[in-house]
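Look over this entry.
=====
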Amino acid sequence: MYRLTEEQAAVVTRLRNIADQHIAPYAQDVDENSRFPKEAFDALGKEGFLGLTVSQEFGGMGEGIRTAAAVVDEIAQRCASTAMCYIMHLCGISVYSARADVAEKQLREAAQGNHVTTLAWSEKGSRSHFWAPVSQAVANNGHLRISAQKSWVTSAGYADGYVVSTKSPMAQSATDSMLFLVLKEDKGIEVSGSWNALGMRGNASAPMSLDNVELTPDRAFTEEGKGMDMMLGVVLPWFQIGNAATSVGICEAATQATQRHLTTAKFDHLGSTLADLPNLRARLAQMRIETDRARAHLVSVLDAVENPSPATMLMVLEAKAAAGETALSVTDIGMRACGGAAFSKHLPVERCFRDARASVVMAPTADVIHDFIGKALCGIPLF
């Protein structure tokens, strides 16, 4: 359905084999113990997938957003937590790539499997309005100092580099922001909490504090007041499409698990399987239709990004909300179809059900996205 070239399909096939060997076997433990999927990232790094979208000039694979979406879909089918950490890495790489003059070293390290990155944007004070940081950079003798209380930093403490947002030193409004490269070895960084959530329990999304972190001017990804331009123009498509691919992968995992259960679980006294019940077959059919519909919509968004038009931004906004809402529906149907076997956690459908809930509350939340789309349709400025 992704309409990949032969070369792109080969990349996804290679990833699928890696995922079967190094992601799927650890997914349950990652979820149960709410731990970072180290085995997955070790394998992704070793096989070059931390450099999936890094330019070949810097040693990466040089793949684009379509291949990345297909890869994330496959990862999410095995472990949504790993997919989320990987999406945030790709988002960070999109910033690095846009300003290779700032992050060439990190791009090369990622291509070699030695650098994981992520975004550190959300703050407690601005909540789901990630584009409006409360913290503000301070100019100090030609350097910049950053103090911020970041919330929900995916891969917090495990990432090697963080794309950090703050208001500019001379900011006049909340959207006058900048983006900076902060490295794990910089003084003043501390992960100030842990992650113990309903779903996506292994993405290590935790609060992180920055206390007078001093940066040289060459660590700035943007000019003063231009942070939002990069947030929306560079990162948003990767984030929205990556989240959509994760939700589609969750749908696929739930559908396949439900299919396996219905075709193998038996009524011994009747000599039949659950698949002999027409109401359960109908539920499975609905799951298949909705999953295919969500993936088709995602592909239409990819088409819009690769062939820009006035409708592209609207499609990008739709991506996360549409797939996320579908994942809620599909996993709920799966829980009903599989009954007690799912409710008692004997099937992975229950983990899919919990993981699906993350997308709708992750900034930008489904409610915020729906408001953005409504504003766009009514000709009202988004900000």
User: Anything to note?
Assistant: The mean pLDDT is 96. The chain is about 50% helix and 15% strand. The first strand starts at residue 117 and ends at 120.
